[in-house]
Specification:
The protein is of the alpha/beta class. About 40% of the residues lie in helices and about 20% in strands. The strands form eight sheets. Strands 1, 2, 3, 4, 8, 13 and 14 form a seven-stranded parallel β-sheet that branches.
């Protein structure tokens, strides 16, 4: 067992219970889980907390729309969020809900303590209010008249409210940040908070509301409910058993202050300014670090149910499996910049990295062990020592190079994880697997097998491969735990416990006992996927979303080169009345119409016979292009064109007017031109 390195407390932001979390929301819990698992591997006593934020006006409105109580609404959504978190195999120790009775009680006591201390006072608030964000803003804080956080419209609001004296603690917080550069990470986020908020001066914070009731009541003023900031942020201490009166649970005494708050960059201000100041007012130590991770964005734009492009974790799991999804969201996310998810990229990573690099490596190694040695993996000690160099001076001592890469990976992974560069840590692990694949190409086991005198060398090669994969799989546990267990089960079917090694031993090569067998029934870890089949399934998922939202899928519009008003001016469009219409002989698709346009009758041939009977056209007031050069269609002269609209499904409708405009010569043409000008 690794040496106990002491307690480590980390949290995610608590998910707002307004609806089902998409894959971008789910990314955070998977990221947090990978860090928690890694810390446990290192020997830390980890406490990992997540949960749901369940109060506020938005919830009240959504519950009313659904025809249920707010509590019923949040119960449903919180259950769904927890289901998704569990589906993603996350190892949280505490799932807190802000509707928990013990949390609500402590929030009331926190509010009262700050009020009695003089840090909270009653006043009035007037400003622009964003309901989704539950935030007030001054006019100068709006961006193009909209919420600076979410971009949605804000409404003017004025109400009585309690305020928290933020400015009282601002200088103290600035000093803390300057003295603890690790407090806000990445550094770019720290600079943003300092320059955009703290150094500009803090306004007092509105911490109660009277315009809605779904919240924790202020126990000494029941007209007010406690606003989200004190309610939601306090979960990080109430979930440990914090008590305002000093009767703290042992969990609080053991784990606070938090080692890491992992949150999205959009709520950084609340966690690095509001929350630390609240803790200062409560005379509690501040968390050691707040990490604002980037966003995972949909490749073709913002996720929307009406567009049918929202990607949910459970849909991805159904198609790719839990660990494939975990791999993608962890490996594809940069440290500071936003990441992108598309169905195409998912398939590419599945096939190249998971199926080829990892899955094929494990399968080939097991298959060769069974083919050449009946599954028994033996350490013979016959190495490639003294193999010399190639013509370019590269060492041919493949064993030594393999072992150096494998045993050196642990330190590289620990270094990346120490700064939360999770994607880079996974890259190092997959570099190990790629080195194992290269080792197969270098040593050519199939060639060694043809020479009986090289049997012991072949055995050593396969032993080295199994050992390298074992160490890689141990390093993979934090990120893809199910996959690691599957690898262990195949490489160590008779002694699976010996496969899972202490972190302290992952820089040591050769710990596998000689003579152990691999499975004789290997399973494919990751199957290659066909992109077209995946896209078909994705379209079915998206269509179901559109139907559920009542949205219509609109076809993509063909983009033609832009024209000027002068180009359009060349086209003359008039309204004409169809006087007569009949089929064109020897042309199944054509009808010929006699159309009165102004003071003349024109003959126009149109390909509309599959959509209209001749008698249906008679009397219609249709839009006609009248300055087209006459042409012959199937021997019949056409003196213009009837305008029509068509869709991708083969439907067609001629363009008509809702009023009789046939007496106004050129009216449609000039009217359109006037509007464009």
């Amino acid at each position: 067992m690794p040496q106990n390195k002491g307690p480590f407390y980390m949290t995610t932001a608590i998910a707002y219970t307004s609806g089902k979390p998409h894959i971008g929301n789910t990314y955070e819990i998977v990221l947090a889980d990978s860090i928690a698992r890694f810390k446990r591997q290192q020997g830390y006593d980890v406490r990992f907390q997540t949960g749901t934020d369940e109060h506020g006006q938005k919830i009240e409105l959504k519950a009313e729309e659904a025809g249920i109580t707010p509590k019923e609404f949040v119960d449903n959504v919180s259950t769904e969020i927890k289901r998704i978190w569990d589906l993603m195999n996350t190892s949280y120790d505490k799932f807190i809900r802000t509707t928990d009775a013990d949390h609500e009680k402590q929030v009331q006591k926190i509010f009262k303590k700050l009020y009695d201390k003089g840090d909270i006072y009653k006043g009035h608030y007037e400003g622009m209010y964003c309901t989704p964000c539950e935030s007030f803003f001054t006019a100068s804080q709006l961006v193009d008249g909209k919420c600076p956080d979410c971009g949605r419209p804000c409404q003017p609001a004025k109400e009585e409210a309690y305020f928290f004296k933020m400015s009282k603690y601002a200088d103290r917080l600035i000093k803390h940040i300057e003295e603890h550069p690790e407090f806000i990470q990445p550094e770019s986020r720290k600079n943003e908070m300092m320059n955009n908020f703290l150094k500009k001066g803090l306004q007092d914070l509105c911490v109660s509301r009277t315009s809605f009731k779904w919240g924790i009541p202020v126990d000494f003023d029941d007209k007010h409910v406690i606003y989200v900031w004190i309610d939601a942020l306090s979960n990080y201490i109430t979930g440990l058993g914090y008590d305002v009166d000093g009767n703290n649970d042992e969990l609080f005494n053991k784990y606070w202050p938090a080692d890491l708050h992992l949150i999205g960059k959009d709520i950084l201000r609340f966690h690095t300014i509001y929350w630390p100041i609240m803790l200062m007012a409560l005379d509690l130590p501040l968390p050691k670090q707040v990490f604002g991770h980037p966003w995972l964005l949909q490749g073709d734009g913002k996720m929307s149910k009406s567009k049918g492009n929202v990607i949910y974790a459970d849909d991805l799991v159904d198609m790719f499996g839990v660990d494939a999804v975990r791999y993608f969201v962890l490996h594809e996310m940069p440290f500071e910049n936003d990441g992108v998810i598309t169905w195409e990229l998912l398939v590419e990573r599945m096939n190249s990295e998971l199926a080829n690099t990892l899955g094929n490596l494990v399968n080939r190694t097991i298959a060769m062990s069974n083919k050449y040695f009946g599954g028994v993996v033996t350490k013979t000690g016959v190495t490639s020592d003294g193999a010399g160099t190639d013509e370019d001076g590269n060492s041919l001592d493949f064993d030594a190079d393999l072992k150096a890469v494998v045993t050196g990976t642990k330190a590289k992974v620990e270094d990346k994880m120490s700064t939360l560069h999770v994607a880079d840590a996974m890259t190092e692990i997959f570099a190990l697997f790629k080195r194992c694949n290269k080792y197969i190409d270098e040593t050519m086991p199939w060639a060694l097998a043809k020479d009986e005198t090289k049997k012991d060398r072949l055995a050593e090669v396969l032993y080295n491969l199994v050992e390298g994969i074992t160490i890689g799989a141990n390093l993979l546990i934090s990120y893809m735990p199910e996959t690691a267990e599957k690898i262990f089960a195949q490489l160590y079917p008779d002694a699976p416990k010996t496969a899972n090694r202490d972190m302290d031993d992952l820089d040591k090569f050769g710990l596998r006992e000689s003579g152990l067998k691999v499975t004789d029934k290997p399973e494919i870890l990751f199957a290659r996927l066909d992109l077209e089949e995946v896209l078909k399934k994705a379209e079915q998922i998206q269509e179901a979303q559109r139907k559920a939202s009542g949205a219509v899928k609109y076809p993509e519009v063909e983009k033609k080169p832009e024209i000027t008003i002068d180009d359009f001016d060349k086209i003359q469009i008039q309204v004409g009345e169809v006087l007569k219409c009949e089929p064109v002989k020897k042309a199944k698709k054509l009808l010929v119409s006699q159309i009165r346009v102004g003071d003349e009758v024109r003959q126009i041939v149109s390909g509309i016979a599959n959509y209209y009977k001749p008698e249906e056209m008679v009397g219609k007031k249709v839009a006609v292009i009248t300055n087209l050069k006459p042409c012959k269609l199937c021997g019949v002269e056409s003196q213009g064109m009837i305008l029509a609209a068509g869709d991708d499904e083969g439907n067609l409708s001629v363009l008509t007017t809702d009023k009789d405009m046939t007496q106004a010569r050129n009216y449609l043409y000039f009217h359109t031109r006037r509007w464009l000008l």
